[in-house]
Inverse folding.
């Protein structure tokens, strides 16, 4: 596994383990460090159309339109015939996150979901596979007779974006398709709130089963919230799921407000920490917040400037490493914030997927900690059961950098890893 950040050579593991003669592409739960993601598999399609096109199909301009599969297929086939499609992107918030994790870690991950059993050249399923890292183990996808989901973005001459959503068979993931050993041996299980709205569909039972497996073996569970509208619709269900099954929640500032009723990200994070152990909030031009718990006996004071906002001196102990609240004898809430990398890009090419990139960085650091603990259990890095390898501040810096890479490109997924980052004051601090 490639460790996050630029570190001294002794921090890279394993350095002397024998290399296998042939690479293994499928995850071995007994040997590999990996994360598991469960997603509604969907492809994003981008096309330019006329206003007449929207009117002919009865599509509301500027809105998100959930349509029947036959109508969506007719729209898609006409776009193909007219050569109006400019791009196909593999989508899905968890699919994006898992792909980005494997790019950053240069290591394996597992995606659980559905996939068309019969894939033809140029089909949405074909494009999904083409745009997913080879490090992502797709061998456990559940084959379905129909299509995976399609999210079609229709751009009219005035630049307005209209969305056509075709679920296809993306919610047909069954409970029997969840491999228990893969979930129980993972560094983390990551999923989104989107499947919670698939009332009456098999994916609900599959999601619940995966949560129970992870909770039984104390595998950290990470949930990404979908959109503000989704959170408003399912607020009570999300809160209850978080309290009983989730350790880490990831969201943007609008979703945080919808969940808590608080518009200030710090106050929203403070409230969310009553339900979970760590929260990641991406706040656009305001930057990024990572908040959680550590034990009072190991809290470490920052050397960065002290910040005050809705909470006074909130980042004082951001050099502390995250822990689960249940593992702390004296749990202390810790808050860290970072402004956008380089003040943000001069030109934002795409905002879709920036939060998924930030979450992938957090997962990478968690997996690195799990990997290091397995290889060096007596290391001073593991005197306490820390959740992450790095501190709140360092993870913030890493997540912020990954988000920047997404913002400056048109795709919602990383195509390459990050360049080496400079040593930080905090790394020197930890070397003492």
């Amino acid at each position: 596994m490639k460790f996050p950040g630029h570190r001294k050579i002794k921090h890279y593991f394993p350095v002397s383990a024998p290399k296998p003669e042939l690479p293994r592409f499928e995850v071995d739960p007994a040997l590999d460090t990996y994360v598991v993601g469960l997603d509604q598999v969907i492809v994003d399609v981008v096309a330019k159309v006329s206003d007449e096109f929207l009117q002919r199909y009865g599509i509301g301009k500027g809105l998100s339109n959930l349509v029947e599969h036959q109508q969506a297929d007719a729209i898609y086939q006409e776009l193909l015939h007219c050569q109006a499609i400019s791009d196909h992107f593999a989508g899905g918030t968890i699919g994006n996150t898992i792909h980005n994790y494997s790019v950053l870690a240069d290591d394996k991950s597992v995606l659980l979901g559905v996939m068309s059993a019969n894939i033809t050249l140029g089909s949405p399923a074909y494009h999904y596979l083409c745009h997913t890292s080879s490090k992502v183990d797709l061998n456990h996808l559940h084959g379905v007779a129909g299509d995976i989901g399609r999210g079609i973005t229709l751009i009219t001459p005035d630049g307005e974006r209209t969305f056509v959503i075709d679920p296809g068979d993306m919610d047909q993931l069954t409970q029997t398709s969840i491999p228990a050993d893969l979930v129980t041996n993972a560094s983390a299980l990551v999923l989104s709130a989107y499947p919670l709205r698939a009332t009456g569909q098999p994916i609900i039972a599959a999601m619940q089963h995966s949560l129970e497996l992870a909770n039984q073996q104390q595998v950290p569970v990470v949930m990404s919230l979908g959109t503000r509208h989704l959170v408003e619709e399912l607020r009570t269900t999300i809160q209850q799921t978080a309290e009983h099954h989730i350790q880490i929640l990831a969201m943007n500032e609008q979703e945080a407000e919808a969940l808590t009723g608080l518009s200030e990200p710090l106050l929203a994070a403070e409230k969310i920490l009553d339900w979970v152990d760590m929260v990641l909030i991406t706040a656009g031009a305001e930057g990024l917040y990572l908040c959680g718990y550590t034990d009072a006996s190991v809290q470490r004071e920052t050397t960065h400037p002290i910040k005050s906002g809705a909470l006074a001196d909130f980042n004082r102990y951001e050099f502390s490493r995250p822990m689960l609240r249940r593992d702390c004898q004296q749990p202390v809430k810790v808050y860290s914030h970072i402004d956008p990398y380089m003040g943000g890009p001069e030109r934002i090419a795409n905002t879709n997927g920036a939060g998924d990139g930030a979450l992938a960085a957090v997962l990478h650091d968690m997996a690195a900690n799990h990997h290091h603990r397995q290889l060096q259990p007596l290391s001073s890095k593991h005197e306490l059961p820390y959740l992450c390898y790095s501190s709140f501040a360092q993870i913030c810096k890493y997540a912020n950098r990954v988000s920047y890479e997404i913002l400056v490109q048109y795709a919602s997924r990383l195509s390459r890893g990050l360049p080496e980052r400079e040593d930080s004051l905090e790394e020197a601090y930890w070397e003492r």
In short: Residues 354-375 form the longest helix (22 residues). Residues 33-41+92-119+133-144+170-430 form a domain with the UDP-N-acetylmuramoyl-L-alanine:D-glutamate ligase fold (CATH 3.40.1190.20). Confidence is low (pLDDT under 50) at residues 421-432. The CA atoms of residues 272 and 279 lie 7 Å apart.
